[in-house]
Design goal:
By secondary structure, this protein is mainly alpha-helical. It has one domain. It has a three-stranded mixed β-sheet, covered by helices on one side.
C-alpha cells in the first residue's frame, strides 16, 4: 500500500476540515471540476518592502499574507481569512512533519500559516525565498478551502506506486500553478521562474520528496498560473501524463 506523503498536511488539507483514481484523474469532480477554476482572483496593489531585520521581515510576511487574503477572497466560496503565527526563535519543530528544521520555513498548521524566521530570510537582501515560500504555502490555503486537498487526500491508497506518485505530482504541481496566480495577483514582476522551478520547500529537502515533478514541468505550471492569472489554468488533474511527470 502506498500512502500520501506527510508533507500533504503542510499543503492545506487540515485547513478545512470514495474517490476513484486514474490517469488523468476521473470521477473526482472536486478535483477536475472544482468551482475555483471558473473564479477570478482580484488584483491587489501589494507594497512589499523587506529589510534585514526580524521586525521588517515579519512585517513583509504579514503584509503579503494580507494581500493574498484580499486577492483570493472573491475566488473562494465562504472564504476564511488566514492569519500568520511566528514561531519562537528557538522553536524549530515543523507541525506537519514533526522534524526540527534550522532554516526559515512556512507551513500550514490547523487554520493558520506558521512561519519560522531565521537568519537566512532575515539577513537576505533579496525577498525571493521568503516570497516564494509564503506564496506556495498560500497555495495550500486555496487547496484547503476549495476542497481540493481533502479530495486528493481521500483518493484510494491501494493504487499502484506509479499511480499514486502521479496523483501526488498533480497535486503539488497545482500548488506551483496557484503560486503563479498569486504572484500575478499581487503584481509581482517575475522574469525568470527557473529558480523557483528548481527550488524545494523545506519538507521536500528534508523528506527527499520526489512528488514535485520535473523542473521543466514545474516551470510549465508556474508560468501557466502567472501568465493567465487565473485558477482555471491550474487544472493539473486533467493534464496529459507528460505534463505531470
Amino acid at each position: 500500500m502506498i500512502i500520501r506523503p506527510l508533507a500533504g498536511v503542510a499543503a492545506g488539507i487540515v485547513l478545512l476540515s470514495s474517490a476513484a483514481y486514474a490517469k488523468p484523474v476521473t470521477g473526482v469532480p472536486e478535483l477536475t471540476g472544482n468551482a475555483v477554476y471558473k473564479a477570478k482572483v482580484a488584483g491587489v496593489a501589494c507594497k512589499l518592502t523587506k529589510g534585514t531585520s526580524a521586525a521588517s521581515t515579519k512585517k513583509y510576511v504579514t503584509t503579503l499574507v494580507g494581500c493574498l487574503n484580499k486577492a483570493w477572497k472573491p475566488a473562494i466560496k465562504d472564504f476564511q481569512p488566514v492569519e500568520v503565527n511566528f514561531k519562537d526563535a528557538d522553536d524549530k519543530r515543523s507541525c506537519s512533519t514533526g522534524l526540527d528544521v534550522s532554516a526559515s520555513f512556512s507551513e500550514i498548521c490547523a487554520t493558520r500559516i506558521e512561519v519560522r524566521l531565521a537568519k537566512d530570510w532575515i539577513k537576505a537582501k533579496s525577498d525571493e525565498k521568503v516570497f516564494t515560500s509564503i506564496a506556495r504555502t498560500w497555495s495550500g490555503v486555496v487547496s484547503g478551502q476549495t476542497g481540493i486537498g481533502q479530495a486528493w487526500w481521500a483518493m484510494q491508497n491501494d493504487a499502484s506506486e506509479s499511480e499514486m506518485s502521479q496523483q501526488n505530482r498533480r497535486y503539488y504541481l497545482q500548488l506551483d500553478c496557484f503560486l503563479g496566480v498569486s504572484a500575478k495577483a499581487v503584481r509581482r514582476v517575475v522574469k525568470d521562474w527557473k529558480p523557483t522551478a528548481n527550488g524545494k520547500q523545506f519538507w521536500e529537502s528534508t523528506l527527499k520528496n520526489k512528488y514535485s515533478g520535473k523542473p521543466a514541468n514545474r516551470l510549465y505550471w508556474l508560468q501557466q498560473g502567472y501568465k493567465s492569472g487565473k485558477p482555471g489554468s491550474c487544472n493539473t488533474w486533467k493534464a496529459a501524463d507528460s505534463k505531470v511527470a
